[in-house]
Amino acid sequence: MQFSTKRGAPEMRATPCIAVGVYAGRKLSGAANALDRAGQGALQEILRRGDMEGKSGTTLLLYRVPGVAAERVLLVGLGEEADLREREYREATRAAVKAAQETGAGMLTLCFGEIKAGRRDAVWKARQVALIAAECAYRFDSMKSKKAEPRPLARVELLATARDASAAVRGLSQGQAIGAGVSLAKDLGNLPGNVCTPAFLAEQARKLGKEWKLEVEVLERKEMEKLGMGSLLSVAQGSRQPPKLIVLHYAGGQKKAKPLVLVGKGITFDSGGISLKPGPEMDEMKFDMCGAASVLGALRACAELKLKINVVGIIPASENLPDGAASKPGDVVTSMSGQTIEILNTDAEGRLILCDALTYAERFEPEAVVDIATLTGACVIALGHVASGLYSNKEALARELLAAGDEAHDRAWHMPLWDDYQEQLKSNFADMANIGGRPAGSVTAACFLSRFTKKFDWAHLDIAGTAWKSGKDKGSTGRPVPLLVSFLMKRAGKG
Ligand code: BES
Ligand code: MN
Ligand code: ZN
């Protein structure tokens, strides 16, 4: 999908399809009014027939509107003018792109510059257009023998005023970069477990490194043994696929500037191990590497945006399978930190691989560490599929991430990390157990991780409910790439 901006009067723009907004009560936006005047009231007359009220999310496609250079006019309902917030703006954009995709236009000119989105500026609005258009164009058919026809919409153009033109250009290119990161995360998430193995993830990281000049190292089992990553390795020991610890460096900042570290859970398939999961929907556990995918997507966007910061991505990658060699409930392992862990449930494997990756992060003397993990079913129960669970040992970092999620419409909700919950992790046989019982399952998982993050500012995103969709739209969402990139952009003093 290509994006561009153009200046000029809407009625003069000779384009296959021009989209203009209509507020509730058939009230024309400025651009719609311009078309109407050019056609001597043609739009008003059509609206009077009652085919479009201006309700949010509705569209009406018109051909041959007199006085208008465009081949098609797409009226897009915006709802009440006074109620126009981010959500309505995004909804209208999505409706316009989807409607244009159903036509043979091939190109859409959007006249949304004047449309309010709460208090968001022109850069934000253009960024959303690019992101939403990329989202609407996304398809995953690499595993089908017959590829889908490409979506007919190849280009989206923003009609901007002289004042907004440069902001629109910037916003579009940012949205395009973030959108490419989201698509990468979606592709990796959607790939099946027999293709997307730990070794495959490592290869993809290397490929990304070549393409975007990232330094990439992959630690093998031997090196992890030397480092004493007994916890991570205990998860991998039931699998025939060798585990990988993938480390990527994006160096956009000054040499001495401390890096931000992103750690992504990379379980390429989670059967539960010996504590086997029930059968239904087990296929969805191929998505258990979506944290890892979001790290790769965010790093790609970082590189394309040329952010002036240093970022390290760490991906512990493994399968979690039952096997004669697999770890068993009751096994005790020693983590890289030296703390011992009683594995009471082999299905709580995410924290077991993350804890060693978090200890490994210490060596980069991080500015802050954010881990991203499809960690607990309990988080889905707590927050559903709307918000990711956010935990942090640093209030200011939590606030920053919450704001980043709001701005990117990829929201998180702050959850408690109080010491009171730590008691649930008590073990009679080791320093801690890897599960804390049914109550507050997402919180106790975060509490477990907090025992490995004492040396730096740290936040944890539980994306179990947000990383993919189930049912007929089953597929990876690419979340929380938008949140992460928004956070990184702010840290880099951009956006
Ligand atoms: N990957 C799962 C978490 C998960 C489950 C995400 C369902 C999305 C949907 C994780 O490894 C897991 O199995 N967690 C267990 C922890 C429990 C054993 C303490 C869970 O949530 O059931
Ligand atoms: Mn599990
Ligand atoms: Zn898991």
Describe the secondary-structure layout.
Elements: E1 2-7, E2 18-23, E3 27-28, H1 30-38, H2 42-48, E4 59-63, E5 72-79, H3 86-101, E6 107-110, H4 122-137, E7 155-160, H5 165-190, H6 198-212, E8 215-219, H7 221-227, H8 230-236, E9 244-251, E10 260-264, E11 266-270, H9 290-304, E12 310-320, E13 331-334, E14 340-343, H10 350-361, E15 368-373, H11 377-383, E16 388-392, H12 395-407, E17 412-414, E18 432-433, H13 441-450, E19 458-462, E20 468-469, E21 475-476, H14 481-491
Parallel strand pairs: 1-7, 2-5, 2-6, 6-7, 10-12, 10-15, 11-12, 14-18, 15-19, 16-17
Antiparallel strand pairs: 2-3, 4-5, 8-9, 9-12, 13-14, 16-19, 20-21
Helix pairs in contact: 3-4, 4-5, 5-9, 8-10, 9-14, 10-13, 12-14
Bound molecules: ligand BES, manganese (II) ion (MN) and zinc ion.
Structure commentary:
This protein folds into two domains: 2-137, Leucine Aminopeptidase, subunit E, domain 1 (3-Layer(aba) Sandwich); 180-490, Aminopeptidase (3-Layer(aba) Sandwich). Strand 11 (266-270), helix 9 and strand 12 (310-320) form a beta-alpha-beta unit. 54% of the residues are buried. The protein has 495 residues and is α/β, with parallel strands linked by helices. It has helices spanning 30-38, 42-48, 86-101, 122-137, 165-190, 198-212, 221-227, 230-236, 290-304, 350-361, 377-383, 395-407, 441-450, 481-491, and strands at residues 2-7, 18-23, 27-28, 59-63, 72-79, 107-110, 155-160, 215-219, 244-251, 260-264, 266-270, 310-320, 331-334, 340-343, 368-373, 388-392, 412-414, 432-433, 458-462, 468-469, 475-476. It is elongated. Helix content is 35%, strand content 21%. It contains 14 helices and 21 strands. The strands form four sheets. Strands 8, 9, 10, 11, 12, 15, 16, 17 and 19 form a nine-stranded mixed sheet that branches. Strands 1, 2, 3, 4, 5, 6 and 7 form a seven-stranded mixed sheet that branches. It binds ligand BES, manganese (II) ion and zinc ion. Manganese (II) ion is lined by residues 270, 272, 320, 347, 349.
